[in-house]
Design brief:
The complex is a heterodimer of chains A (147) and B (113). Chain A folds into two domains: 70 residues, no CATH class; 59 residues, no CATH class. Chain A has four helices and five strands. In chain A, the strands form two sheets. In chain A, strands 1-2 form a two-stranded antiparallel sheet. A two-stranded antiparallel sheet of chain A has the order 4-5. In chain A, helix 1 crosses helix 2 and helix 2 packs parallel to helix 4. The two termini of chain A are 38 Å apart. In chain A, 25% of the residues are buried. Chain B has one domain. Chain B has a three-stranded antiparallel sheet with strand order 3-4-5, with no helix packed on it. In chain B, strands 1-6 form a two-stranded antiparallel sheet. Chain B has 113 residues and is mainly beta. Classes of the chains: A alpha+beta (147), B mainly beta (113). Chains A and B meet through strand 2, strand 3, strand 4 and strand 5 of A and strand 1, strand 2, strand 3, strand 4 and strand 6 of B.
């Protein structure tokens, strides 16, 4: 139905571009030429070499799958948090500096969308006072379950 | 600490408020007495409300309904060397049936920011 609105020339051009893109997306060259740079950008790396160092078995790495997964992991805004230093591709925030006397917050770049489900996990590594906690938080996004 | 917050709430504040709700605010002394407590927060957003379900070591604890806002996954810390990270979970605990959900009064429900 949608394609019915296109004339033959536009339809042919669109199919040609679509075929080329399809080959690029699914080809071996697309892994290193498309998905690896996209993943590197998503992880806020300086270049693809930094991303390659994160994955020792790079020859068998599915960069497309890793990029799709990286999209679902929230990352902190590198420019938005004065009191936090960000590491691990902006997925880890460490409170830095002295003179901290109240709560400081860091929020992710992307908000929680309507009609969505997000799961966090936090595991303090040291059972100290609430203000002295170290946490590892795990998250997953998915379809809203029926409660 | 982990929770959700809006972009209205400042990034610096004295107490956690309604829009930044985390497990350590509710009976935190209980959590603190445990070795490596595993806190899980399942956020479910609909068109007009946001519901949080809390889990401790894989077991359901309580739920909380927040007002309709746009929320962001967020963390908070109050001391140097506090560290938090987001990664994918290995397992998500199941949410109990509606009749078994527990809705305690939020300790900072009336706090403003």
């Amino acid at each position: 139905m949608v394609l019915g609105f296109l004339d033959a020339r536009s339809l042919h051009a669109m199919l040609f571009v679509n075929h080329s893109l399809h080959e690029l997306i699914h080809s071996t060259g697309g892994q290193n030429g498309l998905w690896l740079p996209l993943l590197s950008q998503q992880l806020h790396h300086k270049d693809t070499e930094q991303t390659l160092r994160m994955y020792p078995e790079a020859d068998n790495t599915n960069w497309k799958a890793l990029f799709v997964e990286a999209l679902q992991i929230p990352s902190f805004d590198p420019k938005g948090h004065l009191y936090f230093s960000l590491t691990d591709s902006a997925h880890t925030a460490t409170l830095a500096g002295s003179g901290v006397h109240s709560y400081k917050c860091a929020r992710t770049i992307k908000p929680i969308l309507p009609n969505s489900s997000t799961y966090f996990e936090g595991t303090p590594t040291s059972p100290r006072l609430p203000l002295l906690l170290t946490l590892t938080i795990k998250l997953r996004c998915g379809k809203t379950p029926e409660v | 600490m982990v929770g959700v917050m809006t972009d209205v709430q400042p990034l610096e504040f004295g107490i956690p408020t309604q829009n930044f709700y985390h497990g350590y605010c509710v009976n935190y002394t209980h959590f603190n007495s445990m070795k490596n407590p595993h806190i899980g927060v399942h956020v479910i957003s609909e068109e007009d409300k946001v519901v949080l379900h809390y889990f401790l070591n894989g077991s359901y604890i309580h739920s909380q309904q927040l007002r309709s806002e746009v929320y962001y996954p967020a963390i908070t810390a109050g001391s140097v060397e506090d560290c938090v990270a987001y990664v994918r979970p290995e397992k998500i605990p199941a949410i109990p049936p509606p009749r078994q959900l527990h809705w305690p009064q939020h300790p900072f429900k009336d706090a403003t920011y």
